[in-house]
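The instructor's notes for this session suggest beginning with a concrete chain rather than abstract definitions. Hand out the sequence below and ask the class to guess, before any prediction is shown, which regions might be ordered.
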Amino acid sequence: MKKAIVVGGSNGIGLAIVKVLIDKKYKVIIVDKNEPDSTAMNINDDFEYINTDLVYFDRDLFVKLSKDCEIEILMVTAGFGRAAAFEYLHTSEIERLMKVNAVATIEIIRCFYDRLKSKESFNCGVVASIAGLISSPLFSVYAAAKAAVCRFVESINIELEMKETNNRILNVSPSSISGTRFNGGSNDISQIETLAGEIICRMNNKEELFIPKYEEIFKYVIERYNADSHEYGVHSYNYKMKSGRVFNESRVRIGYLSGTFDLFHIGHLNLLKRAKSQCDYLIVGVHSSGAWKGKETFISLDERKQIVAACKYVDKVVDSCKEDSDAWDLWHYSKLFVGSDYKGTERFNRYEEYFKDKDVEIVYFPYTKGTSSTQLREAISSK
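After discussion, reveal the predicted structure:
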């Protein structure tokens, strides 16, 4: 059975490519953080869905997929961006933009590179962007990520040529595509199915660059940019500002939780993982001691902070404040995470009242059954 992988195949151009490949009798593996758009998929469609978030790149997953000899096509379409001035992009948003739009693409190609450099035919394509070929003010970080992909593909194709293989990576660099969700629209496969078919055809022909609507629009755009990049950039800035698509506001959900994190165990890890799944940037406050619970700590504050900081779900570690509400004054978080046993206590009733006019949600997590710090502490003390 011939197979194809579409990374980011749940929406937009990726979804259209999935549909075309299914029509060509491929079994398609969709790798995406979101489930495929059910309005576009048919229950009889031959596809498999694998859930993963490219921010936390799962190399083992892609290495395993690369060893499936029935896979003939790899298409990477995952990506996201928004029009906003650079000052409104939070550090975590910048990191996610670079990881999803550039780093993950490069890592996926690395996993499949043995297939690409072989003499056997293997078709591969990535969706970059016209923004990666010209300056794009108000899309600065997105453009930087896509520019990295463009230069990467261009360079790797030379290396593949030197290895005397016919395989190439197709760089698809479109502008905004109608029929996708990229600029707040909705999926309409009928609008992009023809484009998806052309992408697959060019990929099968081992082409290296495809700019949709090049002759109609983008040949002139690139010529204008090359003639005077500054003048073009100013024009691009003014055009976007007038379009109504620029949202100069922070869109990062900042989460906060505090704890002692003495004798770090699986319950702590699950708490941090669940908290991170509900925010974009997770700040963790570590208590100086367990005195507030009437318990001593076995591990020093500095070492506990280092342990928490080493967790991939944590973006920032700080000394906790006396009150979690005081931490809001410093970090302006939108979500406060805490164990469900605190719900209804005097302290958190007070927090509920305090945060009413601050657009802060208090999320109460049930505790994970299993190992606890208390159990570990008792076991150590009994020795």
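Then share the key points. The domain at 254-381 is CATH 3.40.50.620 (Rossmann fold). Residues 140-162 form the longest helix (23 residues).
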